[in-house]
Inverse folding.
């Protein structure tokens, strides 16, 4: 029996004229194209609307949703508001898979086909992605539109994302798992909380460093829309909001000090985390989630993240397929950390 591979992409974007065509070309040339691609223009003031209109005329599965200009690019809750502006225009039950996709990526032509093949082979895979790499010393406008196999030797650098979750810029979800975890939190750490909620419900969340699933991130993760420092600082603040323990945060920041920007990136993460700590900033209000997260993080420190994740996934197999865990508050109404 042929498996159904109907997937819907939802793309929040703002002022992406520099990168949009690369992503639009990459998606429209996929070996298995999307059944629907909803692109939410969050008030762009550059040429993004004209580029989107051009592609929407050429490809019938592209739908454009236009939002009023809020005056600035807003990360975290702002991204999720734009995402849900698109999500609320679809019937999620019409699709087998859902994907939050950024408009600053270049993908292999068979990316989505290969991801779906992996998820078909492992029914517990709730969300999956490849790994992001960025091109060293070359701007997006100078880069070749032909996607290469990425290695360190040909000028690409890994963003060093953990294997325990799909990456935020291209979160591909099995539709039932997305529904079961309650969707994304409208807050800065939406792309971390979702993976842990998957494991709480017995699903597996993962990203794989398969050369055929590596993709180019045209705007490196953590650079933010302002600076490297601001991007890493916000990450540290987001970790505090999620409920990460100080010991795990320090270990994570030390590891990040080995990646660009060397040393300063990790320092910025610690600054964001402990500044939130001393301000007694808001935290994600779910005690069961925090207990689950901290137990997992301590096991990561003691056993290593790979072994700890493997052991947790094995243990959580007993809850897979059971009714979802209750949410103590609406995930879509969670405040954004300062």
């Amino acid at each position: 029996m042929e498996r159904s591979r109907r997937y819907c992409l939802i793309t929040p974007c703002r002022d992406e004229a520099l990168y949009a065509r690369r992503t639009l070309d990459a998606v429209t040339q996929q070996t298995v194209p999307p059944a629907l691609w909803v692109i939410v223009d969050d008030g762009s003031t550059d040429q993004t609307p004209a580029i989107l209109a051009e592609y929407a005329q050429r490809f019938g599965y592209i739908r454009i949703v236009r939002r009023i200009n809020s005056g600035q690019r807003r990360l975290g809750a702002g991204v999720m508001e734009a995402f849900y502006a698109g999500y609320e225009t679809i019937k999620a039950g019409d699709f087998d898979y859902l994907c939050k996709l950024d408009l600053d990526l270049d993908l292999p032509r068979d990316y989505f086909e290969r991801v779906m093949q992996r998820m078909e082979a492992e029914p517990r895979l709730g969300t999956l992605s490849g790994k992001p790499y960025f091109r060293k010393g070359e701007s997006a406008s100078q880069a070749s539109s032909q996607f290469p196999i990425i290695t360190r030797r040909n000028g690409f650098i890994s963003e060093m994302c953990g294997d325990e979750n799909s990456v935020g810029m291209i979160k591909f979800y099995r539709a039932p798992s997305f529904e079961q975890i309650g969707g994304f939190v409208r807050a800065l750490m939406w792309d971390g909380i979702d993976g842990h909620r998957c494991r709480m419900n017995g699903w597996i969340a993962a990203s794989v460093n398969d050369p055929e699933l590596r993709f180019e991130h045209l705007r490196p993760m953590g650079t933010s829309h302002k600076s490297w420092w601001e991007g890493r600082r916000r990450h540290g603040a987001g970790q505090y909001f999620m409920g990460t323990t100080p010991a795990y945060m320090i270990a994570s920041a030390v590891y990040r000090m080995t990646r660009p920007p060397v040393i300063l990136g990790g320092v910025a993460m610690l600054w964001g985390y402990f500044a939130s700590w001393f301000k007694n900033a808001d935290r994600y209000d779910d005690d069961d989630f925090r207990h689950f997260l901290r137990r997992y993080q301590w096991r990561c420190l003691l056993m290593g993240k790979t072994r700890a994740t493997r052991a947790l996934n094995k243990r959580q197999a007993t809850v897979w397929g059971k009714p979802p865990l209750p949410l103590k508050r609406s995930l879509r109404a969670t405040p954004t950390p300062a």
